[in-house]
Amino acid sequence: MADEQAWDQPFDEEEAGPVLERRPVLDTTEMDITPMIDITFLLLIFFLVCSTANVQTAVELPPARHGTGVSDRTSVVLTVADRGGPGPALVYLGDGKKGKPLSDDEDAQANEIAHAVEQGLEKGKPTVLIKAEKGVKHGDVWRVETAAGRVEGAKLHVAVLEVE
Predict the structure, then answer these.
(1) pTM of the model
(2) Burial label, 89 (beta-carbon count in 10 A; 0-12, 13-18, 19+)
(3) Can you give the CATH number for the domain in which 128 is found?
(4) Is 6 part of a structural domain of the chain?
(5) What backbone phi and psi angles, to 5 degrees, belong to 126?
(6) I need a surface site. Which of 62, 82, 129, 142 has the fewest CB within 10 A?
């Protein structure tokens, strides 16, 4: 009954306080795709973790298109081997680590390499084949190439020494 009496009395704005405006209802048609992205990444991680790679399959590598073979018989062979510690790489005259390596002094080594290439040219060996081991730095191979390239008329070829 008290409610009915309140409606019967006149409305007093000062007693009621300020009137609050209603916020407009926004009609949003955008969809939040964050959960869908999360699920996609979870599935991706799941399949990556659960899949197994077939390691036993052999891979057939195509033959080289631009390389040509160089005969050991018509070449002066220089082998650049990894020292296994600090210092420049070891350089051997001939195929492999046979005999005594050349001097560690860069100038003396360059003279020995140039002398060997000149002797090879006199014997009818116009090419120089530089074989380098896997762990040899490019700077050491470049140093040997520079020394061999001082001899005019020599053709340089660089190869990677395969470990057997």
Answers:
(1) 0.56
(2) buried
(3) 3.30.420.80
(4) no
(5) -80, -10
(6) 62
Domain hosting 91: range is: 77-160
Residue 2 lies in a domain: no
Contacts for 155 with CB less than 8 Å, ≥ 6 apart: 126, 127, 128
CA–CA distances in Å: residue 152 to residues 68, 126, 140, 147: 22, 10, 21, 11
Q: What is the mean pLDDT of each run of 10 residues along the chain (164 residues)?
A: 58 66 77 92 93 68 68 84 81 83 85 89 87 83 87 82 59
Rounded CA-CA distance 131/163 in Å is: 12
Evaluate whether 156 touches 149 at the Cβ level (below 8 Å): yes
- For residue 133, is it within any domain? yes
Number of independent structural domains in the chain: 1
Query: DSSP letters along 108-133, please?
Result: HHHHHHHHHHHHHHHTT--EEEEEE-
